[in-house]
Task: structure prediction
Amino acid sequence: MSVQQENRFQAIISHAKEYGFVFPSSEIYDGLSAVYDYGPNGSELKKNIRDYWWKSMTQMHENIVGIDAAIFMHPTIWKASGHVDNFSDPMIDNKDSKKRYRVDHLIEAHAEKLAMEGKKEEEYALLKTMDELLAKEDYAGLKQLIEDNKITCSVSETSNWTDIRQFNLMFSTQIGAVAGEAETIYLRPETAQGIFVNFLNVQKTARLKIPFGIAQVGKAFRNEIVARQFIFRMREFEQMEMQFFIRPGTQKEWYEFWKEERLKWHLSLGIPKEKYQYHPHTKLAHYADAALDIEYEFPIGFKEVEGIHSRTDFDLSSHQKYSGKKLTYFDNEINQHYVPYVIETSIGLDRMFLLILSHSYDEEIITKEDGSKDSRVVMHIPEKLAPIKLAVLPLVKKDGLPEIARSIIAGCKPYFKCFYEEKDAIGKRYRRQDAIGTPFCVTVDHQTKEDNTVTLRYRDSMEQERIHIDAIKDKLLLRLLF
RNA sequence: GCGGAAGUAGCUCAUCCGGUAGAGCAUCAGUUUCCCAAACUGAAGGCGGCGGGUUCAAGUCCCGUCUUCCGCUCCA
Result:
């Protein structure tokens, strides 16, 4: 990351705090690592992003419906999804190189080396022992196995290892009021499973025919090893997911469809195409037969903001197996029962929020009428998403101008978020609205009293036009329309 | 978790060789002001991250601890 980019990222973080977008969690207690709170402007912006996504999914697609599943779910769900087995990895550190390894990766790498040397029996024996020890969660035994095989770190080439420690992706808690009788359950690490386990409930009650989608927005929790980079990687975060259920064999075309469709959604906000790129996965997760990330060029480089995954029938089949309940769909067109395939679109709401901040934040140098230079900090937030849509400002706080301004607010606030301010000079008030991304300001002056017209000032161009008071609401609504 | 850097007002930062903490911007109240951070008056805001040590005296030196940032390790 260049110094310039780093400074820009720092400036965005400071700005986010100063103007009530994002605060560090528990700040008066020194903060809580990788957890953040959204302030007044932040919660509005976040809600607007969420609404825009929700509408684009459930309102603009006739065959997509929404649900709101609980964060708590039956613990067996995480066995079926693979999270219990795949994401609770024992880790070990080399004391000399300070490198950290997943124990299974370390041993598997050694086994591969044995195979290359033609020692097939030793390879099998090693892997078999490892699997047994992993199943028993015998960490002392695993460490012994590493030492007995003289497995070394590829960097330091020593076998000076720490003890093995467990890394758990999922947060656990207890359900049930009586200690002892309580059962361990997990805070969901993804929202998708709430959709899968409700697949038949939703399909039947909403009378949906394949292909159809189920959308959901909600919190998820992951115990990341390294959680950092502001709100980009948090331990508690919000996902906007849509699982699209399709006939087996059609996954390739639907994967392509959603890949295009989702990028269009991003571009519909007016964010430049060249800031985006697709990043196909070469190493696929245990449930996918194709996957890619939609990456955005943040100030910290190109990073994933959204994932498109072809999840096959892995999840539904797995839940069918673990629950013993049939999760098939009868397809009238081909007269067949089958377990549907799934294409997932999954976007991080917090990452999208950071994307909007990164896209919007701008320190402009402007030339004033007298030729002198001036600067302004302006957030070019897409108009639809701005926390406040309209600021109404009496030019002076007397002569009845505030009263007119108040009446404009009264007429507009049922339709979009408005803000009234009479303090300070008009230029200062404009700049304050620029700093939080308010796209429109209306100023009431003495002429207003004569002909009921006001000045409408645009955030991005700083241009002004004179319009009639009665035209304000409709003019803005037209621009703010979905 | 390891290595490096840093924690002083809401933000950005000063405070020289240890001597009871300051600026700009922002905020609040008021005066003035007819369109782009105007001016003036006043106010509020700090246990110098926290704990300990050295010293007559610590924001400043030492130790610990917490937090943040950068790099590495992991990442569905």
Remarks:
- The domain at 388-480 of chain A is CATH 3.40.50.800 (Rossmann fold).
- Chain A has a mean pLDDT of 86.
- Chain A has 16 helices and 23 strands.
